[in-house]
Amino acid sequence: MSTPLRLGTRGSALALAQSQLVADSLTAATGRPVELVRIVTAGDRSGAPVAQLGVGVFVSALRDALTAKEIDFAVHSYKDLPTAPHPGLHIAAIPQREDPRDALIARDNQTLAELAPGATIGTGAVRRIAQLHALGLQLQVTPIRGNVDSRIARVLGPGADLDAVVLARAGVVRLGRAAEITETLDPMLMLPAPAQGALAVECRSDDADLVELLAALDHAPSRAAVTAERAMLATLEAGCSAPVAAHAELAEGEQGDEIYLRGAVISPDGARAVRLSRTGTPADAAEIGKALAADLLDNGADTLMGSTE
Ligand SMILES: NCc1[nH]cc(CCC(=O)O)c1CC(=O)O
């Protein structure tokens, strides 16, 4: 029996679910036992809302524990990672991605189109707020914070004070609450965040045996999609700070696999948006993302900040 690999994780329900999922699939694929090691961060101790501190504090705490060799690997929600690579660390696997779309949880089983004018809808992300405004449905968009369960409670809990919330479908599914989703939003209406629904499995770059072992979890189509979306985001960050959305799909074309990447930059009030797409081969995922970002900037993406109501 080999010594268990130490998988560092935050204590939130979503982090634990994601870590356990990766631990189980690694053991199933390689036979290696994995133990979860709780990393208590400054954020967990302060009790302040995550949205206020930024998820960055959690990512940093896990990365510090990796560098200090207190843990062997970590699992992150990919969309929460900064775009800059972290020195000494390596994303050894991107497992098969969960559905990347956003989801609506509404009172009385309503869909977005069924919500009455004036209905209150909660979400934390500027990207979602901007796209909800862009639909022109006269919804009252309310910024909310907190973990997935507490956001759902704002609609379905005892003291419910909202008609609906929008959140990542992947998080709801991983918490076993998919049955409460009343509509999965078409990316034509609500383009997801770059890398939404994907996990990043990270270890030290110099841990060659583990880099090789974790590669068993890598899912090439998910890696190609995430690479394209994140390359777009990274290139845009230099030129524009408006809400950014991206979604890559892989399909079999006549010449082999094709990647279809859509990107959008939206003004925070939803009044203006640049939406464009590009296609190419999965091997060129990063180049497709960079080229799409350049197209978006050429079409005025950098001018979309600051037009508030
Ligand atoms: N920003 C928080 C966060 N980070 C990852 C997820 C969900 C799961 C995922 O996208 O992988 C969520 C919650 C949400 O956006 O509703």
From TrEMBL:
Residues 5-210 form the Porphobilinogen deaminase N-terminal domain. It catalyses: 4 porphobilinogen + H2O = hydroxymethylbilane + 4 NH4(+). The modification S-(dipyrrolylmethanemethyl)cysteine is found at C240. Keywords: Porphyrin biosynthesis, Transferase. Its EC number is 2.5.1.61. Signal peptide: none annotated. Its cofactor is dipyrromethane. Pathway: Porphyrin-containing compound metabolism; protoporphyrin-IX biosynthesis; coproporphyrinogen-III from 5-aminolevulinate: step 2/4. PANTHER family: PORPHOBILINOGEN DEAMINASE. The porphobilinogen subunits are added to the dipyrromethane group. Monomer. Tetrapolymerization of the monopyrrole PBG into the hydroxymethylbilane pre-uroporphyrinogen in several discrete steps. This is Porphobilinogen deaminase.
